[in-house]
Amino acid sequence: MATIKEREHKKFYRDGDKLVKEFDETFTKAEVLNEALNNARVEETGLKIPKLLDVRKTENGWAITREFIEGKTLSELMEENPQKEDEYLEKFVDIQLEIHSKRSPHLNKIKDKMHEKISASTYEATVRYDLHNRLEGMKKHNKVLHGDYCPSNILVTDDGEYYIIDWSHATQGNASADAARTYLTFNLQGKKELAEKYLNLFCKKADIPKQLVQQWMPIVACSESVKNIPGERELLDSWVNVFDFQ
Q1: What are the tens digits of pLDDT across the range 108-163?
Q2: Count of alpha carbons within 13 Å of 145, Cβ hemisphere only?
Q3: In which region does residue 23 sit, left (phi positive, over 0), alpha (psi from -120 to 50) or beta (all else)?
């Protein structure tokens, strides 16, 4: 098998028409099986995603095998063809809205995940308390949410087919939370202009006020802080403290 890429604690191999994602011992069995289960459940919605083929124990940990899809990420295409950014962004938002149109009742709930992240954060108790309250006040929805929706998680084949990859963070709940996460990702990448263009387009196409997405921003920023990624904290702090605590 040929190694395609390596990330911290993960390796990706190509084995013919299969993609093997191997996790090291830092990933628990439950975490790997949950990612595989997310993939299987989202497959059932009919969304175009690489199909799960196998989950197995390896010498180094666990591995998930999926269909290998030949293509470039939407992120790569946007960098290679900056003149087509608006066209790509339109498609990007359309795919996200298609995701949100689906239902998968056995996926974990976004509220449960966010409550856990808030509790695990290092923000002071008063901030955590207000974030928990804000989260509880959000409307309950049951839409499929990707959880890490960004152009690098869209694969485009040579014949123009689009596949959505990396469902490890999938949940069900309020679509505004998913949009807030995407908006945050663009900002953390330093793409502020693209972030604003995305948010305006998403809200227009989804026919929702921008304020609904903005209400989720302190919550998703807090959840991101748990990763402790160097260089992110200042921006995340500004988002977490963006609203007046009651």
Answers
A1: 999 999 999 999 999 999 999 999 999 999 999 999 999 999 999 999 999 999 99
A2: 24
A3: beta
